[in-house]
Every structure is written in C-alpha cells, then in structure tokens.
C-alpha cells in the first residue's frame, strides 16, 4: 500500500494534476526561460532540486513549526536553497546563469514550491512528500522542456544550439519565425498546450462561468 | 526629471511586468476574473512595489553591496549573495506592516483589498522588481520611480485583462479552452499589443 501511495504521489502530477496546465502554479518563471532549450532544462532541473529538498526539510520539521510563522519559515528555507543553487550555477555554468538573470532567484517566490510545501509537505511524512515534490517537479519540467523545444526549434531552427532545420540564409529551406522568441508566442503556445491537454482529457476542463440563456424559439 | 519620467513610462509600458517579463503571472491569472478584485490587487501592487523597491535599494547599497563595509575596515566583504534572503524578508515584513497600518487607520480600504495583501509576499513581480533594481544598478530615486512604474504597469494589465474576461464569460468557448486556456490567449494578444509601446521611450 505504501509503495502504491508513493507511486501515485509521483505520477499523478505528471498529467492528471500537472502543476502548470491544471493547478496554475509556477507559471511566473515557466514562460520567461523557454526561449531556448538549454535554459529551460537548467531551470527545470534547478526547480526540481529546490522543490524536493525544501519539501523534505519542511516535512522533517513539520511538527516543530508554529502555525503563525510557518510561511516565513518556509520562505527562509526555500530562499536558502535557492541561494545555494544560484551560487552553484554561477560557479559552474556561468553563461547560462547570465542568461537566466533574475529568474533563478525568482524560484524563491515560485508559487509551485510554496504551494507544495504548504499544502502537502506540511501534513505528510518526508518520503511521500519527496515523491510528490519529484512528481510535481517532473510535471513542471515536462511542460517547460516541451515549450522550450518548440520555441527554439521554430524560432531559430536549432535544438540545444545545434542546427536542426537548415536556414534559408545557409541554403536551406527554413525561415525562422522570430515571433517565437518574443513574449506573446509563449502565451499562445502555453494556451494551446492547455487546450490540447484538456481536449484529450476532457475531465480537466473548467465549468462554464454562465450557462447561455435558452433562445426565444426553443422556449416555445 | 525627464529621465525619471522616461523610466516610469518604460517600467509601466515597455517592460510591463506580467506581459513582457512574465512576472507575477500566478496572481495575474488567478485574480483577474472580476474587475473589482483586479482594481484592489492593482492598487495593492502599486503601494507595495513603491515601498519595497526603494527600501531594498537602501539595504543593498548600505549593507550588502561589495565594499559596503569598507568604513568598518572590511573592504573585501561581499555579502551580495545574501540579497535574496534580505529582500524576501523585507518584502514579507513590509507587507505585514502595510496590512497592520491599513487595518488600524483605514479599515475601509483594508476590507476592500485586505485579502490580497498576504498573497503579495510570494508575488514574483515584487521580488523581481528588487532583483532588477540590483541588476540594473538603480539609484534611490530611480528605484522609487521604477517600483511605482512597475506596480502601475501591473495594475493596468490586470485591470484590462479582468475587463476582457468579464465580457468573455458570456462567450460560448470550446470546453478545453475555457478558463485557463483562453486567458493565456488573451494575455498573449495583450502582450502583442503592448509590444507596440516598444518605441515609446528611447532605451
């Protein structure tokens, strides 16, 4: 039973409860870093690490945190972990950390991290919390990498910086869509992705705000 | 003076927080269902960003920047890696302070948008404003203007989006597009619209 619970905590957030497309968590940083695949992968990995570590720590000390200051405690734990990741990236992957600019620091206020520590790790033992965090991190990474790959492929014709589609200037056939590298396309792609996911799994669709009034003819 | 005004316009339109930097999208999407809540959120954002960005600028230059402790005989000391922790602490404290002040002296305003204030502690746009302030080395007056401008830009964007969404609630959308999907599309179109402001202020 315990293994089954772990497995479901790990796999449910991948599609059924995907943090980005269903829970609307952590979108803040999801769009800004997806202009190329390598920044998206770096961001996804950093977020997953921070998420898993912080939920484990919060879950370990969950019985000792006073309720009134729990938000501050959680934020301080997350911020300390983010500082470690930030220093690590600056030391070993300097050019990527320059391109991510402030967005690594913004993992601190990523709603996904606080959402998971607040709603799951605070009331569950460490192992299940870690599985849940890993699942959410992977679900987040899945969306991030997909959008990063689409934007880099159609925006520049490259993947991971290597030319995949031959450009027109170099005698190929592909004309890069520079719109893909700008802000609006990220919104459109994510909106389209949400649409696709909810069309395949219709139970994820939201209820309509208002039911349309019955037209005059139908009433008679 | 004109430089500061240009910076204000730039922070408000050209570098709009949610639409061109994707900051604060969680609250931007979650609280834009009705215009009334969006107005409250917008005002709270202007207030909080106008306070926290200049305060963080003071803290950064006085305590954390490389060489800030030169007067104490420690010119080598570089505490800038602590800035994240200091900023988030100050934001949490000032949000709490604003809430207490409002509750004590302006209970009507507090009742109008009190529920959003605690949420703003974990708002990416507010922390992002402080981090951009460090990255771009703003002086104190610039930091103040930048904070106000970014807050105002967020307010404009969220109020406009909520107005569109409240009209769209009567539209017959495909089931999968309802709610989140169409909101992303709307934000994308607004982002396209805002990109026409790019030439408004010379960089």
From TrEMBL, chain A:
The keyword Cell membrane applies. GO terms for molecular function: oxidoreductase activity, acting on NAD(P)H, quinone or similar compound as acceptor. It is found in: Cell membrane; Endomembrane system. Keywords: Cell inner membrane, Cell membrane, Ion transport, Membrane, NAD, Nitrogen fixation, Sodium, Sodium transport, Translocase, Transmembrane, Transmembrane helix, Transport, Ubiquinone. It is an enzyme of class 7 (translocase). It is a multi-pass membrane protein. Belongs to the NqrDE/RnfAE family. This is Na(+)-translocating NADH-quinone reductase subunit D. The lineage of its organism: Bacteria, Pseudomonadati, Pseudomonadota, Alphaproteobacteria, Rhodobacterales.
Automatic annotation (TrEMBL), chain B:
It holds the Pfam family Rnf-Nqr. This is Na+-transporting NADH:ubiquinone oxidoreductase subunit E. It comes from the Bacteria. Keywords: Cell inner membrane, Cell membrane, Ion transport, Membrane, NAD, Nitrogen fixation, Sodium, Sodium transport, Translocase, Transmembrane, Transmembrane helix, Transport, Ubiquinone. It is found in: Endomembrane system. It is a multi-pass membrane protein. The chain crosses the membrane at residues 12-31, 38-59, 79-98, 105-132, 144-164, 176-197. GO terms for biological process: respiratory electron transport chain; sodium ion transport. PANTHER family: INTEGRAL MEMBRANE PROTEIN OF SOXR-REDUCING COMPLEX (PTHR30335), NA(+)-TRANSLOCATING NADH-QUINONE REDUCTASE SUBUNIT E (PTHR30335:SF1). GO terms for cellular component: endomembrane system; Gram-negative-bacterium-type cell wall; plasma membrane. One of its GO terms (molecular function) is oxidoreductase activity, acting on NAD(P)H, quinone or similar compound as acceptor.
